[in-house]
Each structure stands twice: as structure tokens, then as C-alpha cells.
């Protein structure tokens, strides 16, 4: 008795632990208690032993359910064996987290079955097992227990949202057939079609559309379609399929952004390129003045080139070519936009896109600006700068040491000095105004851009973390940017000139009132150096002309290379200068050209240039050190360093010369844009009127002999061939699929034959299982009626057999049972055994046997 009780307690504890786990729910048949049976009698009893006996009896009755459960599982397996229930295989993991395991807080959805359905898919979404699959029998069981197939998690996502993300389409069909709503949106307005489009799942998109999904469904307040989501997530296959199914190419969201503009803003170059190929307009403007073309210039220059191609058309038959220059210009001044977005040309200059500035459309726009106001503005700047330089040059050359003024003979000099000072102050005021305007414009643009990005924060889904991460990264990058005023090194050079001239002027004024010959000499020496840089400033105005632009850029790059060379040369020059000083300089030697530090350094420079130096005196001073120092220093400085400098300058020249035209146009464009910023409203209005009237589009003569570069044509042709092959491959696959479907009727007879054979075999197996079930019931009834056997333990039953042929269950009578015979041929009677002795109770029998059967 004690062992039986302990076993019962152990089974009870195990059973309680199993109930605490979250997992599959399997159907169990209820235990039916018949009137007048031993079960009813046992229910009336109490005590620990009676409870164990009741559990033992239930275990016996449950043994018959094993076969029934097996039949149900086998039936379910046969029903869903042709469905694919695995996870979708794809390269790289999705950044979308999927459904949340927490059920919606809505009281109407809060029931056990709904929680189990959402929890099951939440577990699948977080699983890292690549071979995991969905148990459709388990899903059907949950649904049969009352689960709402459209119940949601705390973000409003249904099970179909999770299935559309990463599971086989067969699972979606399974759910849709059982009432899943294909157009049900989550709290952010995203439907399963949005999810499938975002994760680039074209097979799932086909299933959803075939089952009534709305292809133009818009998200909540964000108003973005599935095409927007495919574009913003670089889902090229989904993009092509949606467009093929009739999705609107130029649909707009709450900001007026098209899918192309949204893809460009999120730096999705692949989908941007696909949209351009499909005919998306790169020049569409959103409500903030942004165009996709302007964004592509900053983030994807290669794709921007394709966008610029839309603004150029060629009519070979009529020898005409057309440039849509008006699409590159900003909105009119009365557009109502307080902070206008940057234009395409401004972005090209800001990011120094030499390849884009050479595009025919950009070159034509630069030419139009140059003709309307650029040329006149450039000549005015050149004339003003030249006057400024000449005025200071005359003053510098007319100075005397010490400074003396004799009036009225020197009145002209005083007038020049006053005019030069006023011009310098005027230039400084202009520079300060330019700096202030640049800073204000940049701060206004930065605040406006950050505000526009932050508007999208509220639409970022918690289960799609990559959306918020990218926007945060964009905001951080914008905050790190600085005004572009000092990005132009010429502005730094201007301030160097202004400060130098102010210092010279101040020293000159002091020298007039203070009689000091040394101060006059210092002022004159400083002025002599400053005047050199004043003349170099003339190149800033000359760079607007295409002929001189590349060479001015080359000089700037040469100065940079020369600075690098001086650092490398100084690493050798300084230690050798110390060695020469220790050997020949100061009190240690008698070489006249090395007695002082400045003489020594100049002599070393002459040795580098293989100029004259006192070789005989050095040899007389120290023979061995002369050979060692001279030979090594000549090899390092004259041979190695000088040739290295020549190589660096040659490389710079070649690099600039190869892009000479692009660099020249870029320099010209910078001057034009700076002139445009200083134009008055009236002048700007005239220019905009000209663009709208004569450049929308601009029609020019086309020379039929002109050809573009062969590389571009070959590249374009290669992409066209690739696209054609992909379309052909898809067409062949569809045709093969249709042909296969056409042969279905020919295979139907064979399938029916196989089905009939399968049903016959299954029927035979079921009959055999029923026989086994009846026999097992008979054994259990006989065991419960015979009272234990008297000797303790379970007696081994004789071998069972049937008279005649093997028994098969009749079709119309499922209750008929064969006459079971003993092995000896005598009938075997099932019921209580009359032994003539008092019958022991079932409780005593179980105590003797030591536990339940099985």
C-alpha cells in the first residue's frame, strides 16, 4: 500500500510540473463514469488509498484512448503532410523582430486560447532554430478551443503578420482559409502586405494579393503603401512584383514623398535604381521642397546620374535636344517655404561630385547661369580685386625708410592709404556678412532638417528597431556638420590677407608718430612679404574662368604636396644640420660658410640642390667625416628627396589634368553660386522667369555626329540584357508551371487509383486496430471482474485465437465482437469468476498486485 501511494504521489508531482510548462496542448478524451460501475462506487469512498485506486482505475480506462489518439494524430499528419510549414530561407537575418508574445490588453481578447495562439507565434519569432516549423495540428487545436484567429499582440499584430514575415506561404493559406483577415492592420496601420513587402517576400505577396489583400492600403497617419515599404527596405523583388500587380508608382505619403524619394532619403540605392528603371520621376518635389534627385546626389551619386538622364531628351529625327533645366531649380520665392531645401547644383558643389557636374544637364544649367548673371558678376569681382591689389602695391612700392610726408607733394599717397584702408574694411564687412549669412542659413537648414526627421519618430515600430536607429544616425550626422564657409580654403586665405594688411597699417601709423628706424625697417619688410600674398589672392577671382580653373586648383594641391615633402625632408635635414655643426660649425671648425647657424642651414640647402659649397675646406678639416656626411646627405636629399618631390608633383598634375574640365566647371560653379547668393530679389525673379519661359525645356540643336562615351553605352546595354534575361527566365518558369498544370488531368486517374489503394489499406489497418482495441477492453474487463487470482500478481492469459478465418469488422455493424476462444478450443466466458470463495475487493487486489496494470 505504501509503495502504491508513493508511486501515486510521484505521478501527481510529475503531472503538476508538466502542467506548469508552456507548450503544445493535446486533446484528451474525458473519462466517462458509468452508473453502477466500480468507478461510481469508488467516488463515494474517501481516504488516501481510495484516491490512489481511483487514479489507477482512470489510468486503466485511459489505456484505450492511446489508440484513439494515435488515429487522430495520424489523421492530422495525413491532412497537412503536403503543406510546407518551415521558416523561409534567405541570405542574412531580418532586422524585424516579429510578433510580440504579449497579448493585446483589450479585455475582449483576453482569454487563454488567444494568449496561447499569440504566445506560440511569439515563441516562434524569437527562436533561433533554422529548422523549426509550425505545428498546424496544434494551431487547429487552439482554434478549435475558441481562439480568435485575428487576435493581436500588444502592438496590434496578428498571427498573419508574423507568418507574412518569415514563414512559408502555405501557412498563410492555412490561416486565411480559417478566417484570418489579410487586410487587418496593427496599431501603426501596417498590414501583412506591408510586412511581406518590407522583408522582400514576393511569394507571400502573391498569396496575400490572391486572397484579397488591398495593394494600396495605407498606414495610420503616415499614409505609406506597401510600395513605400518595399522601397524603404531595399526589397527589390517585392518592388517589381507590386508594380507588376498594379501598385501606384507615384503614390505619396503624409509628407508628399514618393517611394523613390523615400528610398533616396533612407539611402536605399538598389530600390532607387529599380524605381528609376520602372519610370519613377526623380524630380518630384515633396511638401518641404525636397526632390529625390537632390537627396541622391548626397547619398548615391551613381544613381543620381540615372536620375539626371530623365531631364535630357534627344529628338534625332528633328535634330533637337531638350534640357529640363527648370526641374533643377528651387521653388519660386513666393512658395511659402521658409527654409528652402538645397538645390541639386548646391549639393553637387558641396560634396564635390565631379562626375555629376560633367552631366550635360548640369553643364547646361551652369552655362545658363553664367550667361544670365555669372559672367558679369565674375568680371566685377575680378575688377574690384585687381583694383584692391594695385592700390596696395603702389603703396608698398612708394614707402620710404624712414617714413616722411611732404605736403602737398605726398597728398596722393595719403589718399591711396585712406582708400586702401576703406577698401580693406569694406572687404572685411563683406566677409563678415558672408560668414553670418552662411551660418544662419546652415543653422536654419539644420534645425529644419532635424525637425523633419523627428516627425518620423512617432511612426517607428517598436518591433522594427532599424527604423529608429537609422533616423537617430541621420540626426547625429547632421548635428556634427558645420557651416561650409571655412570649408573653402580661399576664405581662410582672405582672412590671412586682411589681418596682415591691418597689422601693416597699424605699424605704419605708429611709425609716423614714433621716430624709430628699426620700426620702419620692420614695417617695410613685413609689407614686402604681405604684398606677395595679396597678389596670390587674385587667383580666387580668376578661377571662375574655365581656362585658368584647373591650374589654380593644381597650385593648391601642389602646396599640399610640398608641405608633405617638407615634413619628410625635415626628418633628414635637422639631424644632418646638427652633424655638420658639430664637425665644421662654430668653434669646432674653420669653414667660413658654416660659422653661424643660418650660414650652415643655407649651405646644407645648397648641397641639396648640388650647388657650390666649400668642399676643399671641409676635406682639410676632417677627411673621413667629410666623405661620410657629404655622400650620405647627397644620396638622401639630392637623389631620394628631390626625386620623391618630382614624383609627387607629377602625380598631382596628372590627376588634375585628367579631370581638368570637370575641375574647371566645378570652380566656375562655386563662383556662380556665391554670386547668386548676393543677387537681389528683382534680379533673381528675372532669372527664374527666364528659366520658366525658355528652359522648360530648353531646346537646342543636336549634332548627329556627337556620340557619348562607349563605356556608358556598354554598361547600359549590359544592364538591359540582364533585365531581359531575368524576364525571360521568369516567363519560362511560368510557362512550365502552366504546362505542368495542363498535364494534371492526365495524372488524375493514376492519383485516384493510388488514393483508392491507400483507402483500402487504411481501412484494413483501422479494422485491425479496432480488433486490438476490443481485445484490450475485454482484457481490462476480465481483469477487473476476476478479483485478483488469489496468489497475488497478474496471471498470464492463455493465448487467444478465433475460430475459422481471421476476423474482419463488418462495415455496417461496428459493435459486433467476435467470439473469443481459448487456445484449447473451448469458449472463453468474460465476466466474474465463480471460485466458491469470497471475492477480494478491488482495493485489496491492487495492494497484492503492487500497482495498476501497465
Automatic annotation (TrEMBL):
Gene Ontology MF annotations: calcium channel activity
Subcellular location: Cell membrane
Name of this chain's protein: Ion transport domain-containing protein
Residues in the signal sequence: none
InterPro entries assigned to the protein according to its UniProt record, in alphabetical order: Ankyrin_rpt (IPR002110), Ankyrin_rpt-contain_sf (IPR036770), Ion_trans_dom (IPR005821), TRPV (IPR024862)
Pfam (any one): Ion_trans
Presence of keyword Transmembrane helix: yes
Biased composition (Basic residues): 12-22
Ranges of Polar residues composition bias in the record: 1-11
Keyword Kinase found: no
SMART domains (alphabetical): ANK
ANK-type repeats, residues: 155-187, 188-220, 222-254, 255-287
Predominant location: membrane
Organism of this sequence: Strongylocentrotus purpuratus (Purple sea urchin)
Annotated stretches, region: Disordered: 1-23, 783-854
Coiled coil (residue ranges): 744-782
A single GO cellular-component term on record: plasma membrane
Mode of membrane association: Multi-pass membrane protein
Bilayer-crossing regions: 382-399, 411-430, 492-510, 516-536, 548-569, 624-646
Residue span(s) of domain Ion transport: 388-659
Protein keywords: ANK repeat, Calcium, Calcium channel, Calcium transport, Cell membrane, Coiled coil, Ion channel, Ion transport, Membrane, Repeat, Transmembrane, Transmembrane helix, Transport
Amino acid at each position: 500500500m505504501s509503495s502504491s501511494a508513493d508511486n501515486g504521489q510521484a505521478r501527481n508531482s510529475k503531472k503538476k510540473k508538466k502542467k506548469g510548462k508552456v507548450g503544445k496542448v493535446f486533446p484528451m478524451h474525458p473519462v466517462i463514469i458509468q452508473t453502477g460501475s466500480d468507478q461510481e462506487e469508488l467516488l463515494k469512498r474517501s481516504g488516501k488509498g481510495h484516491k490512489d485506486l481511483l487514479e489507477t482505475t482512470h489510468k486503466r480506462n485511459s489505456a484505450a484512448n492511446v489508440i484513439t489518439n494515435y488515429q487522430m494524430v495520424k489523421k492530422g499528419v495525413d491532412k497537412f503532410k503536403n503543406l510546407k510549414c518551415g521558416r523561409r530561407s534567405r541570405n542574412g537575418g531580418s532586422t524585424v523582430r516579429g510578433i510580440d508574445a504579449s497579448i493585446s490588453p483589450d479585455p475582449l481578447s483576453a482569454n487563454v486560447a488567444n494568449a496561447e495562439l499569440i504566445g506560440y507565434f511569439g515563441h516562434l519569432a524569437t527562436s533561433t532554430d533554422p529548422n523549426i516549423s509550425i505545428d498546424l495540428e496544434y494551431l487547429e487545436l487552439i482554434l478549435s478551443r475558441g481562439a480568435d484567429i485575428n487576435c493581436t499582440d500588444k502592438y496590434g499584430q496578428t498571427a498573419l503578420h508574423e507568418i507574412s514575415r518569415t514563414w512559408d506561404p502555405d501557412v498563410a493559406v492555412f490561416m486565411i482559409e480559417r478566417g484570418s483577415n489579410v487586410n487587418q492592420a496593427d496599431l501603426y496601420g501596417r498590414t501583412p502586405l506591408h510586412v511581406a513587402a518590407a522583408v522582400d517576400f514576393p511569394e507571400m505577396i502573391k498569396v496575400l494579393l490572391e486572397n484579397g489583400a488591398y495593394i494600396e492600403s495605407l498606414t495610420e497617419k503616415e499614409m505609406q503603401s506597401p510600395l513605400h515599404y518595399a522601397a524603404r527596405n531595399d526589397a527589390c523583388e517585392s518592388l517589381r512584383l507590386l508594380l507588376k500587380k498594379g501598385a501606384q508608382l507615384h503614390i505619396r505619403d503624409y509628407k508628399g514623398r514618393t517611394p523613390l524619394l523615400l528610398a533616396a532619403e533612407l539611402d536605399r540605392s538598389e530600390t532607387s535604381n529599380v524605381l528609376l528603371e520602372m519610370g519613377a520621376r526623380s524630380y518630384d518635389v515633396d511638401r518641404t521642397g525636397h526632390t529625390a534627385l537632390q537627396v541622391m546626389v548626397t547619398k548615391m551619386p551613381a544613381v543620381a546620374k540615372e536620375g539626371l538622364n530623365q531631364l535630357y531628351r534627344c529628338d534625332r529625327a528633328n535634330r533637337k535636344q531638350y534640357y529640363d533645366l527648370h526641374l533643377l531649380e528651387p521653388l519660386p520665392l513666393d512658395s511659402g517655404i521658409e527654409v528652402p531645401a538645397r538645390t541639386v547644383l548646391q549639393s553637387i558643389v558641396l560634396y564635390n561630385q565631379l562626375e555629376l557636374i560633367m552631366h550635360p544637364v548640369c553643364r547646361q544649367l551652369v552655362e545658363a547661369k553664367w550667361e544670365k548673371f555669372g559672367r558679369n558678376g565674375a568680371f566685377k569681382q575680378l575688377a574690384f580685386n585687381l583694383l584692391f591689389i594695385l592700390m596696395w602695391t603702389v603703396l608698398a612700392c612708394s614707402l620710404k625708410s624712414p617714413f616722411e610726408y611732404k605736403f602737398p607733394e605726398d597728398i596722393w599717397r595719403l589718399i591711396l592709404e585712406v582708400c586702401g584702408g576703406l577698401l580693406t574694411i569694406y572687404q572685411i564687412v563683406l566677409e563678415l556678412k558672408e560668414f553670418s549669412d552662411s551660418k544662419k542659413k546652415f543653422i536654419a537648414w539644420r534645425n529644419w532638417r532635424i525637425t523633419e526627421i523627428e516627425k518620423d519618430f512617432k511612426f517607428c515600430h517598436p518591433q522594427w528597431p532599424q527604423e529608429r536607429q537609422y533616423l537617430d544616425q541621420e540626426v547625429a550626422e547632421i548635428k556634427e556638420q558645420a557651416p561650409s564657409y571655412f570649408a573653402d580654403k580661399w576664405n581662410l586665405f582672405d582672412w590671412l590677407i586682411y589681418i596682415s594688411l591691418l597689422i601693416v597699417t597699424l605699424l605704419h601709423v605708429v611709425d609716423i608718430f614714433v621716430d624709430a628706424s628699426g620700426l620702419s625697417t620692420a614695417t617695410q619688410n613685413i609689407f614686402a612679404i604681405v604684398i606677395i600674398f595679396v597678389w596670390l589672392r587674385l587667383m580666387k577671382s580668376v578661377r571662375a574662368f574655365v581656362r585658368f580653373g584647373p591650374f589654380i586648383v593644381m597650385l593648391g594641391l601642389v602646396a599640399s604636396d610640398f608641405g608633405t615633402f617638407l615634413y619628410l625632408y625635415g626628418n633628414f635635414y635637422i639631424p644632418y644640420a646638427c652633424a655638420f655643426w658639430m664637425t665644421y660649425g662654430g668653434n669646432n671648425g674653420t669653414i667660413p660658410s658654416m660659422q653661424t647657424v643660418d650660414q650652415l642651414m643655407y649651405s646644407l640647402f645648397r648641397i641639396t640642390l648640388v650647388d657650390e659649397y666649400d668642399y676643399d675646406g671641409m676635406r682639410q678639416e676632417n677627411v673621413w667625416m667629410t666623405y661620410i656626411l657629404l655622400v650620405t646627405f647627397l644620396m638622401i636629399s639630392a637623389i631620394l628627396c628631390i626625386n620623391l618631390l618630382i614624383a609627387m608633383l607629377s602625380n598631382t598634375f596628372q590627376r588634375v589634368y585628367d579631370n581638368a574640365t570637370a575641375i574647371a566647371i566645378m570652380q566656375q560653379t562655386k563662383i556662380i553660386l556665391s554670386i547668386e547668393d548676393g543677387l537681389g530679389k528683382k534680379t533673381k525673379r528675372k532669372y527664374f522667369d527666364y528659366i520658366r519661359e525658355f528652359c522648360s525645356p530648353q531646346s537646342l540643336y543636336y549634332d548627329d555626329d556627337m556620340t557619348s562615351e562607349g563605356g556608358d553605352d556598354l554598361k547600359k546595354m549590359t544592364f538591359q540584357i540582364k533585365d531581359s534575361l531575368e524576364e525571360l527566365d521568369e516567363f519560362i518558369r511560368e510557362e512550365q508551371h502552366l504546362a505542368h498544370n495542363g498535364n494534371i488531368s492526365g495524372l488524375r486517374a493514376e492519383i485516384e487509383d493510388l488514393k483508392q489503394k491507400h483507402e483500402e489499406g487504411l481501412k484494413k489497418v483501422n479494422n485491425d486496430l479496432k480488433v486490438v482495441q476490443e481485445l484490450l477492453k475485454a482484457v481490462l474487463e476480465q481483469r477487473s471482474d476476476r478479483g485478483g487470482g488469489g496468489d497475488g500478481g497478474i496471471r498470464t492469459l492463455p493465448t487467444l485465437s478465433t475460430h475459422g478465418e481471421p476476423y474482419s469488422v463488418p462495415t455496417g455493424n461496428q459493435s459486433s465482437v467476435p467470439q473469443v476462444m481459448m487456445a484449447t478450443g473451448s469458449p472463453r466466458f468474460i465476466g466474474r469468476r465463480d471460485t466458491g470463495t469470497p471475492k477480494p475487493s478491488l482495493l485489496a487486489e491492487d495492494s497484492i498486485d503492487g500497482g495498476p496494470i501497465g
